[in-house]
Amino acid sequence: MQSFTLNSIDQALLGLALQEDLGIPYTDITTQTLFDQNNPPYSTKIISKEQQPVRVCGLPILYALCEKMELPFTFNALKKDGDILEPRETLLMLEGHPYLLLTLERTLLNFLRHLSAIATLTKQVTDRVKNTPLKILDTRKTTPGLRHLEKYAVHCGGGVNHRMGLFDAYMIKDTHIDLIGGLEKALERIPNKNQNDLPVIVEIRNLNELDVALRYGQEKIHRVLLDNMSINTMKQAVLRCENIFETEASGNITLENITAIAETGVQYASIGMLTYGAGQVDLSMVEG
Q1: 218 Cβ neighbours under 8 A, 6+ residues apart
Q2: From 173, 193, 205, 240, the catalytic residue
Q3: Phi, psi dihedral angles at 89 (to 5 degrees)
Q4: Alpha carbons 200 and 179: distance in angstroms, whole number
């Protein structure tokens, strides 16, 4: 698993997550009332209560919390991001003052549960196509403020990251095409590859639009995105793009149809539900 560092947005988000739960200054009035500084260290652990294996993601959040909080605590992570956590298995052990551990519990679990759910769902999808060349991509359909973390979770699940935002690739979508008056007009305004270091991806809704893309060819386009196509139409499109463009399937892709999509020969499949449909897995903090 590649190393991961929280960026400035992640760090700001973590601060906001603590602030919304603890206020300013940070305060947990119940735990603060029940425990004082003389209490002995408290041991706890985070376990999975899921009935199915979980793909772990989110441990960098724990490391960042260690740096943000004034009171020290120790932990022993028994898994790393990208590992499989079996039902009832322990993810990590923590020891520290009860006030600190109980105060951080929900913030830490909220991140771990959400990011591990994305990684777990991505793993389920990638497992369906593991014997094919198809690569599973994420999208920009992410939770505001969480994109960097959610895309990391997709990576932990075995997926591949698509563009981060609107700044690191050209993507001509159906809305661009309709508003400008056709794909040909849109492509005329996009620089050729030799004038541009960024990839150019074009959304294709039908074989007529593919004909337009093929006329412009490799000098202009890196990849065509085959949007909401039937399996038969996608097969035709993939064959026509061979050795010319990379191909990407998109639109209403699920666990149920991903195998059929892979069988078309398409190279990539971008799936929004990886980030917006994963929900949370059941990770809980219990006495250790």
Answers
A1: 193, 244, 245
A2: 173
A3: -80, 150
A4: 18
Would you identify the CATH topology of the domain 8-122+279-287? Aldehyde Oxidoreductase; domain 3 (3.90.1170)
Q: Is the peptide bond before 53 cis (omega within 30 degrees of 0)?
A: no
- Helix (H), strand (E), coil (C) string for 223-265: EEEEECCCHHHHHHHHHHHCCCCEEEEECCCCCCCHHHHHCCC
Closest CA to 81 of 67, 92, 89, 70: 92
**141 belongs to the catalytic site:** yes
173 catalytic per annotation: yes
CATH number for the domain running over 127-276 = 3.20.20.70
Residue from 135, 140, 141, 235 carrying the catalytic annotation: 141
**pTM reported for the whole predicted model:** 0.95
- Phi and psi torsions of 25, nearest 5°: -65, 160
Hey, where are the domains in the chain? 8-122+279-287, 127-276
The string of pLDDT tens digits covering residues 194-239 is 788 899 999 999 999 999 999 999 999 999 999 999 999 999 999 9
185 is catalytic: no
CA–CA dist 43, 246 (Å, integer): 52
